[in-house]
Amino acid sequence: MTAVLPFTTTRVMLRLHRPALYVWAAVFLVAGALLLWLYGPLTDAAAAGWRQWNDCSTAACAYDQDAILTYKSLSQYMSIAVNVVPLLVAAWAGASLTGREMETGTAQLAWTQSLSPARWLAVKLAVPAALVTAGTSVLVLLHNLVWSKGRGKIDNAKSWTDLLTFHANGTTTVAFALFGLAVGALAGLVLRRSLASLAVTVAATGAVWGAVSLARPYLWPSVTTVSGLAGDAPRGLGLTVDEGLLTATGARLSNPYCGSSHATECSDLYDRIGAVSYYADSHPFSHYWPLQLTATALVLALAAVAVLAAFRLLKRHTGGAPVVTSKEPA
User: Fold this and answer.
1) What's the domain count of the chain?
2) Residue 169 located in a structural domain
3) Same structural domain for residues 164 and 290?
4) Beta carbons of 103 and 192 less than 8 angstroms apart
5) What is the maximal distance between C-alpha atoms in the chain?
6) 116 shares its domain with 192
7) What pLDDT does residue 98 have?
8) Which of 192, 165, 198 minimizes the C-alpha distance to 180?
9) d(C-alpha 245, C-alpha 280), whole Å
10) Are residues 174 and 228 in the same domain?
11) Potential cystine with 94: which of 129, 158, 185, 198 (Cβ 3.0-4.6 Å)?
12) Do the domain assignments include residue 326?
């Protein structure tokens, strides 16, 4: 029997996971259509509504409230939806990518049909990785276009520092999806049970999402700003890392959250502790892509570790499983 051609192996892979392919196509088309609607007429209508509101000089001023509220609701839902995509990928990968075939024994059957275990796993990872990367990248790009178009025009639009907006606008979402794919393949090989692999993969992807989100402010050097105590609070530039009070010697003190020094009790407090100004360590908008790319690199590194572990585990369990060939009769 001749070796299975890459094209044939890919076609078999797509046919085997046809239901998931249909679901992914439906998710992509629906989400893409909604984001295009947001990007086009809905953003224009909401921006016009906010201009009408800001130009109001009387209590009975007319403005397009429906457009403003519809934009607010749909943009929030789409940010959530884009962030959920990696969890959907993780759920499918954990349940179906390798776990189901290991559980039913179809993987071992494939290895006897002139398809080595390493090649089997490579196709299992490469084909969905290409589809997931392409689809998720388009959704992220559309979300970024929607947010950028509304920036400065829609008063209730989320800031770039908002956690869901931060991920939905950038490459971290693509990286999380690929991590879910890689961990799903590894979990299937380790647990050999669909439901168990699904639970572990979704939990691992969610945990990495949470860990990266917590580490986000510390992935790039922050900028320190100093402001007077007459203000109500320290003045940061965007994403706050740390804030507090400064003494005349430059020592940092924790923020007592008293308020402006114009208030007598606050002025007395600042005098007692020797505070002369506020400080704030924060990230301006110009740090968005450095933070994004650093976080993306970390998640992709974890995905690469999961892929390497999957191949090594498979090799240890199968010993390379040499290809079985049939002999032609003499």
Assistant:
1) 2
2) yes
3) yes
4) yes
5) 104
6) yes
7) 87
8) 198
9) 9
10) no
11) 198
12) no
Q: Are 172 and 257 part of one and the same domain?
A: no
Q: Are 169 and 260 within one domain? A: no
The residue ranking higher by pLDDT, 13 or 165, is: 165
Residue 330 covered by a domain: no
The residues, any chain, with a CB within 8 Å of residue 70's CB and separated by 6 or more, are 42, 46
Q: For 128, what's the count of Cα atoms within 13 Å in the CB-facing half-sphere?
A: 33
> Whole-model pTM?
0.89
CA angle 203, 87, 104 (to 5 degrees): 75
Token readout for 4 is: 């299975």
How many Cβ atoms from other residues are within 10 Å of residue 231's Cβ? 14
Residue 325 located in a structural domain:
no
Dump the DSSP string for 253-303. Answer: EE------TTSHHHHHHHHHHTEEEEEEEEE-GGGHHHHHHHHHHHHHHHH
Mean pLDDT of 60-72: 85
Domain that holds residue 267: 223-285
Q: Which of 130, 160, 162, 131 is nearest to 147 (CA)?
A: 160
Instruction: Please give the order of strands across the beta sheet that includes 223-227.
Output: 223-227, 275-283, 239-247, 252-254
195 with 259, same domain?
A: no
Q: Are residues 292 and 241 in the same domain?
A: no
With beta carbons less than 8 A apart as the criterion, state whether 183 and 89 touch: no
pLDDT in tens, 319-328: 654 444 444 4
Q: Are residues 130 and 169 in the same domain?
A: yes
